[in-house]
Amino acid sequence: MTKNYKILLAIIISSIIGANNTVTAQGSPADSQSLSMALQGGTIHIGNGEIIENGTVVFEKGLITYVGDENQQAEKNIDVSGQHIYPGLIAPNTRLGITEVDAVRSTRDFAEVGQYNPHIRALIAYNTDSDIIPTVRSNGILLAEITPSGGIISGQSSIVQLDAWNWEDAVYNSGSDEYKPAGIHLNWPSPYKYDRSINATTANDSYKENVDRIYKEFAEARAYQKIEGTPDPENLRFEAMAPVFDKSVRVFVHVNHKKGILDVIQFGESFGLKIVITGGNEAWKVADYLAEQEVPVVINATQRLPQSDDSSIDQPFKMASILEDANVLWCFSHHGSWEQRNLPFQAGQAVGFGLDQEAAIRALTLNTAKIYGIDQTLGSIEKGKDATIVVSDGNIMDPQSSIILHAFINGRTIDLDNKHKELYRKFGSKYGILD
Amino acid sequence: MKKLIYFFLFLSPLFLKAQETFPENGAPHEKEGHFAFTNGEIHINSDQVIKDGILIIKNGKIVDVGDDLTIPASAIKINLRGMHVYPSFIDLQTSFGIPPAPSPHRPSKEQLLSSKKGPYSWNESIIPEYRSQDEFIFDENQAKKWRNIGFGTVLSHRRNGVVRGSGLLTTLDNSRPHLSILNPLASSHLAFSKGASNQTYPTSLMGMIALIRQLYLDGEWYKIQGNEKETNLSLQAWNELQNLPQIFEVGNKLEVLRAAKIAKEYNKIYIIKGNGTEYQRADAIKKTGMPLIVPVDFPEPYDVEDPLNADLVSLEMMKHWEWAPSNPGILEEKEISFAITSAGLKEEKKFLTNIRTAILNGLSEKTALDALTILPAKWLGEEDRLGQLQQGFLANFFISDHPIWDEEAQIIENWIQGNQYKVQDRPNPIVGNSYNLLIGENSYEFTVPEKGEKIKLIDEDSASLTGEISMEFNRVNIIYSTPQNEYIRLSGIAKGDRIEGDALLPSSESVNFVATLQKDNKSEKVKERTESPESDKTPLLYPFTAYGRQEIPEQKTYLITNVTVWTNESESILENTDVLVQDGKIKDIGSIRKPRKAVEIDGTGMHLTPGIIDEHSHIAISRGVNEASQASSAEVRIGDVINSEDINIYRQLAGGVTTSQLLHGSANPIGGQSTLIKLRWGMTPEELKFEGADSFIKFALGENVKQSNWGERNTVRFPQTRMGVEQVYEDYFTRAREYGENKNGTKPYRKNLELECLLEILKSERFITCHSYVQSEINMLMHVAEKFGFRVNTFTHILEGYKVADKMEKHGAAGSTFSDWWAYKYEVIDAIPYNAAIMNKAGVNTSLNSDDAEMARRLNSEAGKTVKYGGLSDVEALKLVTLNPAKMLHIDDRVGSIGIGKDADIVLWNGPPLSNFSRAEKTFIDGRIYFDREENEKKAQQIKEERARLIQKMLQAKKGGKNVQKPQLKKQKEYHCETIGE
Predict the structure, then answer these.
(1) How far is B917 from chain A (nearest CA, A)?
(2) Could you give the 3-state DSSP secondary structure of residue B888?
(3) CATH architecture of the domain with residue range B89-101+120-222+230-385
(4) How far A288 CA lies from chain B's nearest CA (Å)?
């Protein structure tokens, strides 16, 4: 039996017998941090591309108070020598908590009826008690963007922390009490379309028309914001778009083709929007331009098939390193809900194809926080930031060694148990294979 | 000196030949249609040509042909000086005069049985009773199009269904169908196409193939005993069709091979109508020995001006644009018999042009003519009256002004059954001539243009005047303007060497003019080709797609040195070890001195593992992974529809996969027969098959088979619950057992391919891979199996295997699962990533599979997940994707471990194989390197360069005035278990 597994097993079994030689998880959601804590002797992956070997992180009342290689003591000390300390991973563009079983309609709460739904809020449907969330959390993903889909403007997304009593408790507002979406999601029309008569995809003749419609919608929405006094009648959809025009809320534009990406950049510029390219399968083709225009990209899952037969067979695997080399601000993402637990492995796949290890970590943490405008408090292990931290036995991006031993959200000690571990214990003990 | 005889008298109306059964209204006005064509170059067939020949026809037939014949006085003489006469063409692939079948509609609920009333086939796409003769109506508009491009006879059938019934052979002579129809029952037609059927079965290509197979058996059964048990007009008609030429329409080169395979099984010859891609697998097609019908609808270049849209067009499509005109030439070179059809052409005028292009690209003129005349005639058994200009043959011939394959050749007339059909006016005989014109005192020279009306009158001082010339019969008009801008009009008559007449001057006066022939340009004309043969084509690739290869990699002797070897044998992991590969096998392991001829591969710092075996894959399958129409489709075979050209084969080699089990989907409790392939990228479908492997079949349980997530339309097929699923098995196995008893008895029985397959399971000659999720159904199937005396070989997906691992172990079933999928549907609500580890530890032979073209590229790191989820050792984890699936598939004597004598199906990784930071550097199958990362980089570069070259060529074509087509992206569909439809 491997060393990793022994540790993991200890954790799993500890939940049954109640003993605990590491940290007492207080169940979920966890209480706020009462004792100051020190993680001692681990490799600290700061999240900004740097590492500190044999380092210590101290946090108190939910905030990081020390990061460095000096010996520091706290009220509670945890030996993490030989282990790896990372900022809690952030999963962008997910359906966590808004779908439970994909094929069961009654559990699908991610797509509303209508084309322009900027007023729709995904957060409202977010189920903090989803069985999926603990399976994701226990792989080191501590925050996620809850994202609506469908239509042209799908609605508003929110960043949530994944250990909460309810959506109010979950939403991450960087300290502010006021509700503010993480972004508004816009689905850019496809420049290409499938033509059934020839069983092939060709240029979409109505592409320009479709784009014009979006321009028109945004022009009207912007004009609406300039109406003096109270508009009569009030247009809830346009009201919801107010913050995109003062750049306080980002517009995440789902677009994959080069043609679309170029047009989206132009679109953002003409309305003065803060644009984030989301998906961006062909972003690698315009990496320099994206860097020059300072347009960030949330990339689709690395583990996907190449775009076409002629594409380089590794093209999705190499995408990340191309953007990195071009100095684009970008981050990893994965689609769906339960799939989020594989987010770190999307990064690992890119590492195998030329991406620097720490750059990969950055694109799971600090880059993501920057893209969502929450990097003041999250995304890296730096003094003053939230103590949202994960400890893995080995490299968090490689499935065989990504064994999560501790997780903290704002200093709270997070329960790493989940339904799958419970079933493992139940049936593992039936067959007597847990020893 | 030529006489100006205007031989193209339009002989109207059509002469009516004796029509014995018809009453006469008034005095009969019968004509003999007796003609003698003289002085033309008569192409009797592609070998025999008579210069200055004589062709005599009468009553629609050729009476005589030769160079020294007495012309009967009663024959109308037609002078064909300078002209060429060819046998009219024959097209085997038309629907001339046949109304199309109604378009299919989608019934509101699944339609399980045929809606056709009467004692016919249970399946709507089996229509042998359809006779084209019953619906045929001569359509002059259509006929004219074919006649104008040289056709005289067409075989016509209705393109509807898998078995389409009979075709009729008719000439394009529009007199009376009684005379033009040469054979009302001329051919039998089949296709891989469901046509207008609204019935669910078949939903896949393999279903169509199964239907045809069973039909052959049922036909035999009906002949011998079935007709006593039932009246079945479809079977009766089918039997009657068997002695006719069998024409099989397919959609691409691989389907040619598939049709040929059926033909061989039932001792048939199919004439296979392909789609023009046959050159891409010409050697394999040659081996089938089947004759072909090929189109000449060569693709237009793509409009690649917009670089972003141009990205849509694959290298395959670009290359096909370049190679398509070579198809006939390559088939000729390979000595494959083929006929040419006009089918598929958007504009019929392209027909001759495209054949000429094909000739520039390697097709010989002789073969081109044979493919349109003598061969189709022979195949139809009409070689005694069609396809040549011999005595006694039908008077079907066309007249052209140049040899027909010359670029400038035009068809002037097409004579069919002795009737003349004008295609265009013959150029006036004076065209091309130069004359010296005298008008009063003035003298000019001019040449009658080949095209258009513009002429130049050049005077003695070489000054020129412009004018126009027009001609009708032998009257010639010329108009030109003087330097004073006055018009002079000439009106004369051409006779012999001269044109004489009056010149009308502006002043109302008129004077005589005479134009005297200077020289006859036409006889001096040299053949010119404006287009030169394509010479810069790059070689063919196998498969014909990006990353295809020119040749199958060589089986060399390789010594991989100083490598970490994951043997999966008793010694487990060996470090700093050498492995010798020879003749496709592992020859030695240890510290080995390099044999002289061996190629050394330095494995320092690298890891060598057995090739990955994907127990559950749906790549490399054409046109449907599910025959989703019935609760059982045991008769269908994935092995019939292997798609050797799927890029995913190559992509997965890059992930270290060497063997994949291609499974039927999970749409029904009893799916279809599986096939096992090695990923020998470049080889043909049959060559991919894992030789000598045991037979397997896919079963399925749960939501897919009860159509839970298919919507309200699909609620009629049995079963709709897990309760029903059990009874499907009880029922089918009971029937199979009875069938087996009948088969062993003395009475004749109807051979049933579905029950044959199930009987193999009962006899443990075929093994089950069962898609399964929840514990109740897993338990159930093991009980059914035990009751019928066999074992379930493998449960696949088996996401609740951990709940019944002890029972599986006891039963002897293996489990092949996903590493961590769950929550995508209700039945995976309890799926856990610890499943594989629990089953493995509980003694179940366990593997991890993909069911997904993407995941299969990284099964190594999927296996790595079991170290995290459940704590398997590295060695045990790797076995989940190598040795364990090999055992499940009964091929562990060949693959799955690195031991002396095993197949050299191995992977060299640049790091520890379970890590997702590692990648496969080289993948060997049978000791051949099928994937090499360095070579891959080169290929990627070649693809770039090749695309650039072809794009330049297409841009030149567009700028040179060629029509272009919109760029388009065609993608092979990715299949999963639950994918329905093609």
Answers:
(1) 4
(2) helix
(3) Alpha-Beta Barrel (3.20)
(4) 17
Structure tokens at A48: 């900004």
Q: Do domains B433-524 and B553-610+896-926 have the same CATH topology?
A: no
Put simply, whether B185 touches A (Cβ < 8 Å) is no
**Given CB atoms, is B855 within the 8 Å cutoff of chain A?**
yes
User: A435 near A423, Cβ under 8 Å?
Assistant: no
Identify the band that residue B528 occupies on the pLDDT scale cut at 50, 70 and 90. very low
Judged by CB atoms closer than 8 Å, whether chains meet at A203 and B853 is answered as no
Contacts of A198 in chain B (CB under 8 A): 968
Beta strand extents in B343-495 (DSSP E only): 397-400, 411-416, 419-422, 433-439, 442-447, 454-459, 464-472, 475-481, 487-495
| B838 CB within 8 Å of a chain A CB | yes
Q: Which of residues 297-336 of B touch A (CB under 8 A)?
A: 306, 308-309, 311-312, 314-316
* Model ipTM value: 0.95
The domain ranges of chain B are 1-88+387-426, 89-101+120-222+230-385, 433-524, 553-610+896-926, 612-893
Asked if B88 and B151 touch (Cβ cutoff 8 Å), the reply is yes
Query: In this complex, do A427 and B802 lie within 8 Å of one another by their Cβ atoms?
Result: yes
pLDDT in tens, A356-396: 999 999 999 999 999 999 999 999 999 999 999 999 999 99
Provide the CATH number for the domain formed by B612-893 in this structure: 3.20.20.140
Q: Which residue has the tokens 């499907």?
A: B728
Burial of B982 (0-12, 13-18, 19+ CB in 10 A): middle
* Contacts A398 to B, Cβ<8 Å: 861, 864, 915-917
> Which has the closest alpha carbon to A183: A375, A329, A373, A333?
A373
Smallest CA-to-CA distance from B212 within B620, B640, B629, B630 is with B640
Return the CATH number of the domain spanning residue range B433-524: 2.40.128.120
Q: pLDDT class for B734, splitting at 50, 70, 90?
A: very high
Query: B553-610+896-926 has which fold?
Result: Urease, subunit C; domain 1 (2.30.40)
From the CA of B944, how many Å to the nearest CA of chain A?
9
**B690/B688 Cα distance (integer angstroms):** 6
Architecture in CATH of A1-88+379-435: Roll (2.30)
Instruction: For residue A102, give the nearest of B316, B823, B865 by CB distance.
Output: B823
C-beta of residue B169 within 8 angstroms of C-beta of residue B155: yes
User: Are A337 and A134 spatial neighbours (Cβ–Cβ below 8 Å)?
Assistant: no
In chain A, the residue whose alpha carbon lies closest to the alpha carbon of B917 is: A352
**Is the domain B1-88+387-426 a CATH 3.30.559.70 member?**
no
Strands laid side by side in the B612-617 sheet: B612-617, B657-662, B675-678
SS3 per residue for B18-75: CCCCCCCCCCCCCCCCCEEEEEEEEECCCCCEEEEEEEEEECCEEEEEECCCCCCCCC
Using a CB-CB distance cutoff of 8 angstroms, which residues of chain B are in contact with residue A403? 868
**Rounded Cα–Cα distance for residues B508 and B488 (Å):** 10
Q: Stretch B323-349: mean pLDDT, rounded?
A: 97
Determine whether B747 is exposed, middle or buried from the number of CB atoms within 10 Å of its CB (0-12, 13-18, 19+): exposed
Smallest Cα distance from B821 to chain A, Å: 8
The residue in chain B having the minimum alpha-carbon distance to the alpha carbon of residue A336 is B824
Q: Domain ranges for chain A, please list them.
A: 1-88+379-435, 89-376
Tell me whether B710 touches chain A (CB under 8 Å).
Answer: no
The answer to whether domain A89-376 has CATH 3.90.1150.180 is: no
User: What is the value of pTM for the model shown?
Assistant: 0.93
Of B650, B854, B917, the CB nearest to A348: B917
